[in-house]
Amino acid sequence: MTILLSLMLAATPATGSAPPPMPQDLSQVPVINGWLGRKISPRWSEDVAKLYRHGECGGAVNHEGSQLLEIDMLFLLSGDGKPLKIAPVNVRCPDVEKFVSRRILGTLSGSFPKSGAADPRWMRSQVRFLWSDAP
User: How far apart are CA 72 and CA 37, in angstroms?
Assistant: First the structure.
């Protein structure tokens, strides 16, 4: 994960306190159940495939004759569901990382749950892409 993108949305929380550090153990971070991005991301597969093929990328696996790329995502969310930071965790492809982060910001920024909490919290989800390299 590039530092640029993990800091891309850096913002000072409304409380003025320092944001919580990025979690190192994903299993300790709550999952965003039913997040719209997980459902929509497969529609971006062809764009991701083009970026993946042209970059120094890794991580896609064979899946029934196609390529499957699953990216874990961390989101630092304010109490009103605004993303303060987006951190793709296991991308291993800077162009795909930028594309996914921009797409989430552009089309899905209002899709995060509101907790009503005064302090921001980290949550996680995943985006998935499937494409064929067959002629």
Answer: 12
Instruction: Give buried/exposed letters for 111-128 (b at 16+ CB in 10 A, else e).
Output: bbeebeeeebbbbbbbbe
* Sequential pLDDT tens for the chain (135 residues): 444 344 444 444 445 578 899 999 999 999 999 999 999 999 999 999 999 999 889 999 999 999 999 999 999 999 999 999 999 999 999 999 999 999 999 999 999 999 999 999 999 999 999 999 765
Global pTM reads: 0.83
Token couple for 94: 């800077």
Q: Could you give the CA distance from residue 125 to residue 75 in angstroms, rounded to a whole number? A: 8
